[in-house]
């Protein structure tokens, strides 16, 4: 099965530079709403996990890994039935799911976690298709999961954490399960922050809706960066790794001159 569904464009160096600038801006803007969320729940990202009961914290990795496995089948099946939606519609739908989970406090948020993971994966697949990739192709399936290895919307990121763009595993037997097992611990921390934010007393549904709205926007933007770079490598005929390095240079904090 081919992974490319649309023909390559031909980009000159100036066009390539302009697209890299746009991707860098997307990356920088992705976490902007995360600060507003932290203000809403009255906490710092590193303190959110402390709000969760110890059994929940201990089980985050396994729960997230299971959620990813379930999400793979659910996301693919839904794409065959329901067409991809616009980013704004996806964020509103995600917010509604978060509100429902938030009404039930932490138990409700735990129940909602697999559904939200599947929904986020579905939106990532939609971004892959938007850039001309077949979401059901094996390589693209890997790339959709890899987007979940991004830092998360509540992380303090100076632009140096682009490891999710270069994470690679051989497409050998069981490789997808290995990838899920590799991504799950990091995503588990991110989802733990999400659960804690949703479970804020009193705020309930408001915190749940806001949390999902932020997370949905973040992963859609990270998917745009990831698949935008992959597509740019094809269209500009430039090695993907070279583009990642050029993006990283753009994201480094400006060095003040004395």
Description of the structure:
By secondary structure, the protein is mainly α. The protein has 11 helices and no strands. The N and C termini lie far apart (56 Å).
List the topology elements.
Layout: H1 13-30, H2 32-41, H3 45-48, H4 54-58, H5 60-81, H6 87-103, H7 105-130, H8 138-146, H9 175-198, H10 205-235, H11 240-251
Helix pairs in contact: 1-10, 1-11, 2-10, 5-7, 5-9, 6-7, 6-10, 7-8, 7-9, 7-10, 8-9, 9-10
Spell out the key features of this protein.
single chain, 258 residues, mainly alpha, 11 helices, 69% helix, disordered C terminus
- Which series of helices and strands comes N to C? HHHHHHHHHHH
Outline the biggest β-sheet.
Answer: none
* C-alpha termini separation: 56 Å
Shape: globular
TL;DR?
With 258 residues, the chain is mainly α. It has helices at residues 13-30, 32-41, 45-48, 54-58, 60-81, 87-103, 105-130, 138-146, 175-198, 205-235, 240-251.
